[in-house]
Request: fold
Amino acid sequence: MHQIVRLNSCEEAVLDDAADRFIAKHKGDGRKALKAMMVTNADLNDQLERIISARPGARRRVPDPTRIERQLSMI
Reply:
């Protein structure tokens, strides 16, 4: 799914904070953190595809920035 998501300054700050914490969890290694995030993203996409295929009438929704912000704050 390729989609450009535009963030306001508050959402950008939340995303920056989440990225900083994720990199810190990987002992400051940005490359290692990026690889871990890519694996996590692939796993989540696989789960989403399984859920969508299990519900034939399910439709794809545009990501909700507020929900994404809440999820990132839990990282």
Observations:
- The mean pLDDT is 84.
- Residues 9-73 form one domain.
- The chain has three helices and no strands.
